[in-house]
Amino acid sequence: MSDINQNKPLELPTTYDPTGAEQKWYEAWLEGGFFKAGSRPDAPKYTIVIPPPNVTGMLHIGHALDLTLQDILIRFKRMQGFDALWVPGTDHAGIATQTKVESKLREEGLSRYDLGREKFLERVWDWKEQYAGSIRKQWSKMGLSLDYSRERFTLDEGLSKAVREVFKRLYDKGLIYRGKRIINWDPAAKTALSDIEVEYKEVNGHLYHLQYPLADGSGHLTVATTRPETMLGDTAVAVHPEDERYKHLIGKMLRLPIVGREIPVVGDEYVDKEFGSGAVKITPAHDPNDFEVGARHDLPQIIVMDESGRMNDQAGPYEGMDRADCRKAIVKDLQEQGVLIRIEDHVHQVGHSERSGAVVEPYLSTQWFVSMKPLAEAAINAQRSGNGVNFVPDRFEKIYLHWIENVRDWCISRQLWWGHRIPAWYKEGTDEIYVGTEAPEGEGWVQDEDVLDTWFSSALWPFSTLGWPESTEDLKRYYPTDVLVTGYDIIYFWVARMIFTALEFTGESPFKDVLIHGLVRDAEGRKMSKSLGNGVDPFEVIEKYGADAMRYMLSTGNTPGQDLRFRWEKVEQARNFANKIWNASRFALMNLEGFKVENIDLTGSLSTADRWILHRFHETARDVTRLMETYEFGETGRLLYNFIWDDLCDWYIEFAKLTLYGEEAAAKASTQSVIAYVLDRTLRLLHPFMPYLSEEIWQHLPHEAGETITLAAWPAYDAAFDAPEAVQEMGLLMDAIRAVRNVRAEVGVTPGKKVELLAKPTTEASAGILKRNEEYLRRFCNTSSLTLDASLAAPEKAMTAIVTGVELYLPIAGLIDIGQEIARLTKELASLNAEVDRVEKKLANEGYIAKAPANVVEQERAKGADYRDKRDKVLARIEELKN
Length: 883
Prior knowledge:
With 883 residues, this protein is of the alpha/beta class. 45% of the residues lie in helices and 17% in strands. A hairpin with a 5-residue loop joins strand 18 and strand 19 (433-435). The protein is elongated. The N and C termini lie far apart (73 Å).
């Protein structure tokens, strides 16, 4: 690597160039192998597996948030000394990827059937290579510290072996079965879907009330349906067995309108007597509830549509019609026959394919299923016994448990070509089925044409990526993983499935924590979508502002579990923060010429400002570490921003200039030591958020031995640097300087204009502080003269500032009028009165006094006394000016 272990600091360029730094340092990090786990065998391990992005296209801003949070954690833990592994990888994304490739083929006038399975899959693999390569480039642009030596793909040989092993074991245990059941059918993609791949949307439709005549001509039953086209597959009408209106009809036959087929009236407790007419049409092949009723009464199952959603030969005169066209035609015919007695407007939830957007058809089909109840029970028991996973925020545990407690069997077969082919073979001419990890020996075996649901392989990701089912060293070392970072939108799809499969096959939860974040929305809070045109390309953000600015904005603007609004001005603010750090570092480096790490002496003649910044740094390091451990990145960002911008740049560096530009060599050396120490360690705290900027500056800075900041030790809090007296001293100085500056600004005295300053300390302690730090007051209040005198009388014509421990007066001869100063002090008096009132109300609240810790109550009392003291002084000054 270049620019490492310099014997002296190198001058930083005037401006920071993110593009150059990003390319240079990412290549250097990879070349140095700094992201590769395993070099610290005696250290505790820390593992994250990446939620594998689909190889369907480019990463979006939501991916950028998800990945940035993971990178922050892995860099943090690596610096803490952990053997940190972040496993990268991508997902084959069955339906999504096949749909993309088929769409591309249509542009060429081809279908997958024109190519055949083998040639089509060659096309999909080409697609995968292209987009997996693009995703890797995007990872590098974001600065992700992934261990590429362990990169996995859900269709690679190792993971495919794991999938086959899991399928076989579940099948042998009776937890995977093949059966004919109602499933969600996507007529556009021509494949089955699982329940959670169906999105329900509110649709304005109609409720059609139909009369089914009794076959003996003695009357009729009225039923209602939102889908009259499915009546062609009706095989019964059900009533409640205890419904007095219909008990006598159970067992009688009805004549199905249009078709003329006779169907029975059956009694079933599924029917709600109070809802509608109390009679329900039963279509076992096109409704999941009707399927169950049909099974109880041994009813025929008549499928009236084909896999494209068109009416089939069971639909009589409507054969060949699209289901939507059939509905219109059948409504017209029912009206003509006089059996459609009423149509009502009706708003209802209609399932749509999460993949293709098509209206989902409940469809009777032979598919493969996972029997979920035994697996779900194990996951529920683990969670309730304290051996489950820790959800952050914890409210998501309820959502997870609610779903898994009510889970239905999982349809895992998909009528696709791209994916893990189901490891089941059928013996031609027999009913024999063979399930195994390899093809059976002998002639006449044909493998199932279907593939497995994408989420079947994704569910194994935390352990299959580490080598399971083999007992690999990586599996023994790095499993279970430590945290999963993901969005709340895939708790059902992925998180739950990983938990129950891991418990079944490894006996452990796959991760300790699940950190849930929200979606990235636009500035108005809307979900980003192509239709709205409000999407944000993360790489446009990086090109414009740099990766660090994007990472800092996304991570520190985020609260666990909450959605984040993307605002360009927030990215610009993050870029400005980076520039502030750069400029402060340039100043520091220019004043460290010839300084070496071995020169650092933090026990020498430290100034008040030196001791204060060391105290504040260690306080910040302690709080940042605590917040990082609890995933509070937004609060971490606020702390870092305040410390760097306010304490380090705006105050300490300004104070340090007096020493650095002074004549006293020992004081200058001490301040150089402090600047080098604090800047080095501040960059380390910042590194997980802004890896490129921190590395670029750190490499120019004198620092302890080490090739890269990515492996530098995380700063630990050290109580030896606690300096409460320096904090008190600096607090008074900063309050005084701020007060003088505020007064000058209020009355329009420019910062460059020197003023006379009279300071009246009100305690011996404040007198000592002001005396020791006269030079700071002269410099930062820009005084023409400074008088420190505990006995001085307030001048008749002066601006006044009251801070704890000192009264400040700026004689105003020729600068402002008395009326303006009285108005300003009156405004300050109102503010102090409000504070006094607030504290007194709080202390008068018996509930507060009873519940609040004693030290907190005492602090409030001290605040109240201080506010009253300031108020009295301001009030007295107003009276003096008036007189």
